[in-house]
Amino acid sequence: MNSRRPSGSVRYENHGRVVIVTGGGSGIGRAICDAFALSGAAVICADVNDASAADLPDGIDFVHCDVSSEADCRSVAAHAVKCHGGIDVLVNNAAIQPKSSYAPIHQLDSDTWREMLAVNLSGYHRMAKHVLPVMLGQASGVIVNLASGQAHRTAREVGAYGPIKSANVMQARQWGVEYAREGIRVVSVSPGAIDTPLVRATLQEQGGAEALANRHPLGRIGQSSEVAAAVLWLSSNDASFVTATDLEVDGGLGSFGAFADPYSQD
Ligand SMILES: NC(=O)c1ccc[n+]([C@@H]2O[C@H](COP(=O)([O-])OP(=O)(O)OC[C@H]3O[C@@H](n4cnc5c(N)ncnc54)[C@H](O)[C@@H]3O)[C@@H](O)[C@H]2O)c1
């Protein structure tokens, strides 16, 4: 038996490819920007937070974009075409989960619901709407929607976040089917708990870091770079037969059922 294994980590070649990442200024989006830039892509980080442009490495182009604005989404797509010549990959990642959204729906205020719909659902739709004509013209492209484990299984007080994340999965299935014959693949990625500033802040406030780690069969929460690695694979030709589906990047969390949690120390 041949016991030799390739050494080093898998690296994708993305020279000459143009990638838009919404919400690329922080957390998972930032790791996706970095991974694509390292692999040679021209990366456009489209984020509403202008301050996040300050520490972006060279080679990542920052464009101010509020995905709840039709005009902003249109101009990010136009910028990519004008300055980089096309759009090969769109990563729909920008989403919000404000503190006010942690409530049962009869107590959820309507402004929070409307804001989450505008960013987390309509934002993905708007970006796809303006990017797809470019991809159709090229007869190629990949769209990756960041969904969540909470798209598939629920918890208490995520009555806005969960259903909207679930719709992000369905958007990918719908668009994937719709554009399959046009050379365009569309997928969603559903992370488990990932070590981002948002999750760290919530854990600092509420505690429970060890319990959260234990809920993942791998015994830890994930890193943004691990989600980025999945996005790079899905965007590559190695995933050429993968479309209109979802990939859970969750350390096994989603396979826990009603018998959970056998690893808990509590
Ligand atoms: N962190 C996790 O554990 C986790 C788990 C499952 C799914 N996700 C999903 O992964 C994605 C990224 O999550 P994260 O934890 O990295 O978030 P984050 O809060 O760290 O980063 C979100 C980024 O989006 C930007 N943004 C917010 N509203 C925007 C708008 N209207 N227009 C443009 N940009 C906007 C923010 O400025 C920020 O840079 C989200 O879709 C989230 O739902 C995260």
- CATH fold-type name: Rossmann fold
Name the helix and strand elements from N-terminus to C-terminus, one letter apiece.
EHEEHEHEHEHHHE
**Bound chemical compounds:** nicotinamide-adenine-dinucleotide
What is the general shape? globular
- What ranges have pLDDT less than 50 throughout 5 or more consecutive residues? none
Biggest sheet: strand arrangement: 3-2-1-4-5-6-7
- Into how many domains do the coordinates divide? 1
User: Largest beta sheet, briefly?
Assistant: 7 strands, parallel
CATH class: Alpha Beta
Number of helices: 7
Query: Percentage of helical residues?
Result: 25-40%
- Output the CATH homologous superfamily: NAD(P)-binding Rossmann-like Domain
What is the structural class? Answer: alpha/beta
CA distance, first residue to last residue: 44 Å
**Fraction of residues in β-strands:** 5-15%
CATH architectural category: 3-Layer(aba) Sandwich
Radius of gyration: 18 Å
- Number of strand elements: 7
Characteristic key phrases:
alpha/beta; Rossmann fold; 7-stranded parallel sheet; 7 strands; 38% helix; globular
Describe the structure.
This protein is of the alpha/beta class and 266 residues long. It is built from 7 helices and 7 strands, in the order βαββαβαβαβαααβ. A 7-stranded parallel beta sheet has the order 3-2-1-4-5-6-7, sandwiched between helices. The longest helix is centred in the middle third of the chain and has 29 residues. It starts with 17 loop residues before the first strand and ends in a 17-residue tail after the last strand. The mean pLDDT is 93. Bound molecules: nicotinamide-adenine-dinucleotide. Nicotinamide-adenine-dinucleotide binds next to α1 and α5.
